TrEMBL record, chain A:
Name of the protein in its database record: Ciliary neurotrophic factor
Annotated signal peptide: none
Gene Ontology terms: biological process: ciliary neurotrophic factor-mediated signaling pathway; negative regulation of neuron apoptotic process
Entry GO MF terms: ciliary neurotrophic factor receptor binding
Length: 202, 985
């Protein structure tokens, strides 16, 4: 089936190049996240035993196949936005508690991930705007634990969890964006069927 | 020995009383002591958790010495048990003692009790006070202590882990290392790390794992207390103070744990922590400064004091500018602070031009300008200035920003002119292109003027700026003779005008050739030396060029002052492997005069090409000749040539020819066959690749032919001499070798003239012999033998027998047959003669020289073919062929033919077996009887004489022993025999 983005009723639709660009950025960010996580594990001499996954920090409504494109993109955008907030806070806390030393590869990679995440967020925002047809409303960050722990060791684990969270949502973004064309095709078919039914009733 | 005696009963009673008294006394004393050493009361504890210090206080009465016991409550393990001296606080009346624990106090509960001591007397233990740890069942959390501790490098640290209630302890990890642990209580485990190294800026993680694998961790920072050096304060603006210092070592503590500085009790702003050099300023010069550096591990104090005038560090000049001329410039600048106007300054001015720097030092109060002289026109310069206090100099200020400027243009310098003469009346005037420093601006062109002093005519030519040579033809300028001179003048021009003229005098002189010396290159150039020349009024010129060049050469030169006697010639254009010719000229008002020549190489190389080699054979020798290597290819002074035999795979040096003009070499003693020779010229750098030539050595045919001819000539000459001698001495020879045989005296008349009988066979060469004798049919016919000598192999006979076209005389020869008719000098036996005449009317005469023991015999077997009838004499001289073969000449003998009536009618020659069986023609061995007497003695068997044919034979009769040699005589012998025969009278 040829990839063809169609307009959703009542609003504009994302074009193909925007989706591709966003996917490429997400893939790049995913690679950079992997490097960042590796650098972090190395600098902290922490094993995977220590760095166990301890649940999600980002909370969004559960995604399902029943969600339409708009809702899917909105959830994605919301998650990435929370990730960026958490990442900014993690960097700030880390600098506050542990900064002042010589800057190295880790700091450079951390900065790169932060900037790439902002770029991805912007691109997903464009997609959402294209689907929704209205300016993107920033989801509320209320309830998001941005301060982090006060104990230094726990702070380190928290920072790592945030990096993992960014990595997780980046991968989710890649999956979502790659599956976006098929979802749009289904919606197009459904919309056409509804139109056909309505016209028959008339 | 006398003994006192007493009753046992009384003794026992006495002892019992004494023991009782003693016990009572001790009991009373002990009761008294207890009353004096009161039991410590109101024992209380207070803890400093960070310092891991426990403060124990109690009311202890008058005692000053106490026993302290500290136990881990759960396991009842003694941690501390010592006697300590504690004085009573006079205000509170309490005794207090501090105990520092190795373990964090949170690790487990501790039980503490105290008792008073006075010497060996102690009181009862006080009530046990328990310091509760965090491992109480009420605190179920998973914990690790201490939390976020900052420790000095090299210290020991104990970490304890309290596992969650109900969980099992697994391990404690320090950094990436699993440590060994000890158990402090039911839930508490501890590990001690000794001599800790510095941690990273993120600290060292200490993590504890329980059975749930949920980690509990802490971060420890290990670093150094501050250490400073080079603390000094100075002023830039003559008012404030700026103090600087260096951190002598990295404390490894950063950020909020980093070092804080206070200068004269004022906080210094945090600069970049990674910079080792720190600075802090104070608004007013205070004269004394105290710097305190402090971090969690300690502090460092350093001080400095000085007067302001001794610590003036001027700022860099600003707004640098210049007033520019062609040969000088005035550089101007300004000061940031007006207070500098009254400050005595010393300044350095650094002038840069094309990478070279020149420093000027000037001084003055409030200095703001400097004049730079000795500049070059139209040149780019860059200038920087820095200053210091002239009085109580402290240090140089910072350099100003570099200011660049270009001096004004000026007329160019006179060019450096020289000339090249080709030997005829042509040549060229050459000059060196002016450098920027000489041209003073862009050169617009050159003007060359030739002026003949005799003709007083000027020829002026204009050349473009990139020209460096002007061709001259002196015949076009003036009728040139040896004493005529032409002055060439070269002027360079730029936008500012013409340069001063540069002259060179041209004068054709028949210069005598001067010897060429060799110049040896050193690391710095070619050192040349010469004798001083009085004629060199205006100095010398050393000129050099590539020796290969002969006309209009690109020449280089250097002009030297008069009185100079040596020079070191160096040039960036010198190349290895190129021969340069250096010429020394003296400069006079009348022109130049050649004084000396040198030739040399910067570096000799192996020749770039090989000789052209040719070879030629001279008998068994080979002459190698080769040509001269062109000068351009020699690339060094040729030392000689090495000659190699390269016939094999390896080069074999066979000779060396020094380079003294000879370019040939003779290789001797060569064997026949192909040879390859390689000639390699060599210089001091080595051999060239070599030229190879092949030659095939062959036998010299001319010489061989000459030798043969010489041998033949000598042989012919010898034969002529022998022949001549024989001819002259023929009588002697005849007498010696061919004596007259006395004629036999026969009864009867045998004087009938006998002549030679030529038997002419029929046209088909068949002799038909008809036997007319009735009584002896066995007397055979005459067998036709081909006209040939009796070669033993019979082959030639067979061949010759075919030729029967012409009717030929049938002749029998022994060795040599005289063509002439044989005189019937020796009549055979009467029987034979008679029978011959009777039978066929043919007279065949056998003439020969026979040995005395031999006789001419015709063996005819009357019976025809029986072996039994063969004569015995025949057997005696037979040479092979068996008894039946017979070796003698038996013309009439049939080869054992059974048929008695044999008629040789066949035109075919005798077959080989037939001849062979006949035994060939051997008259010497078969002819025995010379007389009928002897014939009769032979048993009446004188068949030859009974033959119907008589044969005349001529032969030498030689001894039997020479029989075989006789048969091999050459034609020369035949000729000799004929000669002798012809010599018969």
């Amino acid at each position: 089936m040829a990839f063809r983005l169609t307009r959703v009723i009542g609003g504009p639709e994302p074009n193909r190049s925007t989706v591709s660009r966003a996917t490429a950025i997400a893939e790049q960010l995913s690679q950079e996240c992997s490097i960042l996580l590796e650098l972090y594990r190395k600098k902290e001499s922490l094993t995977t035993d220590v760095l166990m996954d301890d649940g999600r920090l980002v909370s969004v409504p559960p995604t399902s196949s029943q969600l339409d494109i708009r809702d899917t993109l909105w959830c994605l955008h919301s998650a990435l936005l929370q990730c960026r907030s958490l990442l900014e806070r993690a960097i700030a806390r880390e600098e506050e508690e542990l900064g002042g030393g010589k800057k190295g590869d880790y700091e450079t990679q951390r900065k790169m991930v932060k900037e790439r995440l902002s770029l991805l967020l912007s691109n997903v925002g464009e997609l959402l705007k294209a689907v929704d047809g209205a300016p993107v409303l920033s989801p509320s960050l209320e309830g998001l634990e941005l301060n982090g722990p006060t104990i230094l060791f726990e702070l380190k684990l928290w920072v790592y969890r945030i990096f993992k969270e960014v990595d997780y949502w980046t991968k989710t973004t890649i999956t979502t964006l790659q599956g976006l064309p098929s979802v749009m095709a289904k919606e197009h078919t459904r919309t056409a069927r509804v139109r056909s039914t309505r016209s028959t009733r008339r | 020995m006398p003994r006192s005696s007493s009753s046992p009963k009384s003794k026992s009673l006495c002892c019992r009383v004494w023991l009782t008294c003693a016990l009572l006394g001790l009991s009373a004393a002990h009761t008294l002591a207890k009353d004096v050493l009161g039991v410590p009361q109101q024992v209380s504890l207070s803890a400093n958790m960070v310092a891991q210090q426990l403060s124990i206080s109690w009311l202890g009465g008058a005692a000053t010495t106490f026993d302290l016991m500290i136990l881990r409550t759960e396991l009842n393990e003694t941690v501390f048990y010592e006697t300590v001296s504690v004085t009573m606080n006079q205000v509170s009346g309490l005794h207090q003692w501090n105990w520092t624990s190795l373990d964090p106090l949170e690790c487990t509960s501790l039980s503490i009790k105290v008792r008073s001591r006075d010497g060996q007397v102690t009181s009862e233990w006080s009530n046990t006070q328990i310091f509760q740890g965090n491992d109480l069942p009420s605190n179920e959390n998973f914990q690790l202590y201490p939390q976020e501790r900052i420790m000095p490098v090299g210290s020991n640290a104990t970490f304890c882990c309290i596992v969650k209630e109900g969980q099992l302890f697994r391990s404690i990890q320090y950094g990436s290392r699993i440590t060994t642990t000890t158990r402090l209580s039911r839930r508490s485990y501890a590990t001690t790390v000794v001599n800790q190294g510095p941690s990273s800026s993120w600290g060292t993680n200490v993590v504890c794992f329980d059975s749930l694998k949920e980690p509990q961790g802490t971060v420890v920072f290990v670093g150094y207390p501050p250490l400073l050096s080079d603390f000094v304060c100075e002023t830039y603006d003559l008012t404030s103070a700026l103090c600087q210092w260096n951190e002598a070592r990295d404390t490894k503590l950063y950020g909020k744990r980093g070092t804080r500085f206070t200068l004269n009790k004022r906080d210094c702003p945090k600069g970049r922590q990674q910079q080792r050099q720190k600075k802090c300023s104070v608004a007013q010069w205070e004269g004394n400064w105290t710097l305190i550096a402090e971090n969690p591990l300690g502090q460092y104090i350093i001080t400095d004091s000085a007067e302001l005038s001794h610590r003036v560090h001027p700022v860099a000049p600003v707004n640098v500018s210049a007033v520019i001329h062609a040969w000088n410039a005035t550089v101007l600048w300004q000061w940031t602070y007006s207070s500098y106007s009254s400050l005595a300054l010393v300044c350095q001015v650094e002038l840069s031009c094309h990478g070279s720097k020149t420093n000027y030092t000037v001084s003055g109060e409030g200095l703001q300008s400097v004049v730079l002289s000795d500049l070059y026109p139209y040149e780019d310069y860059s200038v920087q200035i820095r200053c210091g206090a002239q009085q109580n100099f402290w240090k140089w200020g910072n350099w100003s920003e570099a200011f660049t400027f270009k001096t004004n243009p000026y007329v160019p310098d006179a060019p450096d002119v020289w000339m090249w003469l080709n030997g005829d009346s042509t040549g060229q005037i050459v000059w060196k292109p002016l450098t920027q420093r000489q041209s003073h601006d862009q050169i617009t062109g050159y003007e060359v003027t030739f002026w003949s002093t005799e003709e007083n005519l000027q020829h002026t030519h204009i050349f473009s700026p990139d020209t460096t040579a002007a061709p001259i033809n002196l015949t076009q300028i003036a009728p040139f003779s040896s004493d005529t001179k032409v002055i060439a003048t070269v002027i360079a021009k730029n936008t500012e005008g013409p340069s001063q003229p540069a002259n060179v005098v041209i004068r054709l002189t028949d210069a005598e050739p001067v010897a060429v010396s060799r110049a040896v290159y050193t690391d710095k150039g070619f050192p040349l030396f010469w004798q001083s020349n009085d004629n060199a009024t205006c100095g010398y010129v050393v000129e050099w060029h590539n020796t290969v060049c002969t006309r209009n050469c690109p020449v280089d030169w250097i002009k030297l002052d008069a009185g100079t006697t040596d020079v070191l010639v160096e040039s960036a254009n010198f190349q290895p492997g190129v021969r340069y010719t250096f010429s020394l000229f003296s400069c006079t008002s009348e022109g130049r005069e050649l004084l000396q020549h040198w030739q040399g190489y910067v570096q000799e190389l192996v020749p770039s090409s090989s000789v052209i080699l040719s070879t030629s054979q001279q008998g068994s020798d080979v002459l190698l000749t080769w040509g001269e290597i062109p000068l351009v290819s020699r690339r060094g002074f040729l030392l000689g040539y090495n000659i190699y035999n390269s016939s094999d795979s390896e080069l074999k040096l066979i000779g060396n020819v020094p380079d003294k003009g000879s370019r040939s070499y003779i290789v001797t003693g060569l064997k026949e066959g192909s040879h390859k020779f390689t000639v390699k010229a060599y210089t001091s750098a080595g051999e060239d690749t070599g030229a190879t030539s092949s030659v095939t050595v062959e036998t010299n045919m001319d010489w061989l032919i000459l030798e043969i001819l010489t041998s033949l000539g000598i042989t012919a000459f010898f034969l002529i001499i022998v022949t001549f001698i024989c001819y002259k001495k023929r009588k002697w020879v005849k007498k010696a070798f061919y004596p007259d045989i006395p004629e036999p005296k026969l009864p009867g008349d045998w004087s009938r003239t006998q002549g030679p009988l030529d038997v002419k066979p029929s046209s088909n060469s068949i002799i038909h012999i008809v036997d007319k004798s009735d009584h002896d049919p066995s007397k055979e016919m005459l067998v036709a033998i081909p006209e040939e000598d009796e070669d033993e192999d019979g082959q030639s006979m067979e061949d010759e027998s075919v030729d029967t076209d012409e009717p030929t005389s049938l002749r029998y020869y022994n060795q040599v047959v005289d063509e002439r008719p044989i005189r019937p000098r020796y009549p055979d036996s009467s029987a034979s003669s008679a029978s011959s005449l009777d039978s066929v009317r043919t007279d065949v005469t056998y003439t020969g020289i026979q040995t005395s023991g031999s006789s001419l015999v015709f063996q005819l077997d009357p019976a025809g073919s029986s072996d039994d009838h063969q004569p015995h004499a025949d057997l005696s001289v037979s040479c092979g062929g068996g008894g039946g073969g017979g070796g003698g000449y038996r013309p009439q003998m049939q080869p054992r033919a059974q048929n008695d009536d044999i008629i040789l009618a066949s035109p075919e020659p005798l077959d080989e077996p037939l001849v062979a069986s006949a035994g060939g023609y051997k008259p010497q061995s078969s002819w025995h009887l010379d007389s009928p007497v002897e014939a009769e003695e032979s048993g009446g068997r004188a068949p030859s004489l009974g033959s119907p044919t008589s044969v005349a034979s001529t032969q030498f009769l030689l001894p039997d022993g020479e029989e075989h040699a006789e048969a091999k005589r050459s034609s020369a012998t035949t000729w000799f025999t004929n000669l002798l025969s012809s010599a018969k009278p």
